[in-house]
Amino acid sequence: MKKTLTFLFFLSLTFLFCQKIELKKITDSSQVFKGEINGTPITIQLDYSGITDCHQYQHFVDGWYYYDKYRKKIPLTGIYSLGEIYLYNFGDRQKKNSKLFKEKITGKNINQIENIAESLKPEEAFIFPEQDADQDVSGSFTMKNKNLPARLLTKDSRIYRFNNYLMLPGSKKINTYDIISKAGGNELISYASDQSGNRVLLYFEEVSNFNYCGMCGAGDGEKGYRVLYFTKDWNYKSFDEYLTESCLQNIEDTKMTRNKDSKTLTFSIQKTSVSSGYILTVDVKNASVTKSR
Predict the structure, then answer these.
(1) Burial letters for 64-84: b for 16+ Cβ neighbours within 10 Å, e otherwise?
(2) Residue 91 half-sphere exposure, CB side, CA atoms within 13 Å?
(3) Listing from the earlier edge strand, what are the strands of the sheet with 236-245?
(4) DSSP character at residue 211
(5) b/e per residue, 86-106, with b = 16+ CB within 10 A?
(6) What is the pLDDT of residues 96-129, one digit of tens each?
(7) CB 205, CB 222: distance < 8 Å
(8) Separation of alpha carbons 146 and 279, rounded Å
(9) Phi, psi dihedrals of residue 262, rounded to the nearest 5°
């Protein structure tokens, strides 16, 4: 019996560490939120429908809400702006005034959302200001002369999300969107294990600035490697990031060499106005990166 248990134990370890690690990219452009109006349960669905001008996190949304008791969908249009949400129902003029609202906002009037909406006489409005990260999203609901408290039962109001799901042994999964960067752009390179635990090596290319009209916007200006560290049973601990190119830090003209077996990459990073030069050695086989002068 003891030999059987020992065999099964080693078999389970073999199965655990032979499972394939994968990175799945899923971009969300729609979110469903549960919420409340003055304590009455509601559901809101919002769909990304294009940026207002240059900033990826200032975009138009369309959708609906209903009271959970009745489930009759009431149309909404509005804007998500850097953590704030403005939603309007224009009643019988919903289609016409939604179009006018977007035309008046586009490119120049993102700071005049409420004034432009009021000029189109909405019948109902949700306003959710930017929130503290550790609190549910709260705001107000206006209908005719009534102004009631409203709440979304979430701490994350973002509609557009670049999810990178890292599928790990033991049916574990983490989203790099939640722990590393909101910009996505990760590629799985390799993974390795030793006495200290497990490591996953990622290569990334991401935008420097979500405001495409701002400094370093519109291009994949940040490039490099990330090493994610896990315990022996694949619980996430931390990560390190190493840049090989950067618009924000003025890292360019990087020289890369590769050893004969293609398992080790060496990057020579030139001195910049904000940092001294250094060498990055990427060990693909061992899923590690070292930085030296």
Answers:
(1) bbeeeeeeeebbbbbbbbeeb
(2) 8
(3) 186-194, 197-206, 222-230, 236-245
(4) B
(5) bbbbbeeebeebbeebbebbe
(6) 999 999 999 987 678 889 999 999 999 999 999 9
(7) yes
(8) 63
(9) 65, 15
Q: What is the C-alpha separation between 114 and 119, in angstroms, rounded? A: 9
Q: How far apart are CA 207 and CA 209, in angstroms?
A: 5
**Both tokens assigned to 250:** 């003025």
Strands (DSSP E) found in the chain: 22-28, 30-37, 40-51, 58-67, 74-81, 84-89, 124-128, 137-143, 146-152, 161-168, 172-175, 186-194, 197-206, 222-230, 236-245, 255-258, 264-269, 278-283, 288-292
Furthest-apart CA atoms within the chain: distance in Å: 80
Q: How far apart are CA 60 and CA 46, in angstroms?
A: 10
Residue 74, token pair as written in the block: 């009431």
C-alpha dihedral sign at 155, 159, 164, 170: positive
Q: Which tens digit of pLDDT belongs to each residue from 55-68?
A: 888 999 999 999 99
Contact 192, 286 (CB under 8 A): yes
How many residues does this entry show for the chain?
A: 293
pLDDT in tens, 195-253: 999 999 999 999 899 888 888 887 778 999 999 999 999 999 999 999 999 998 888 88
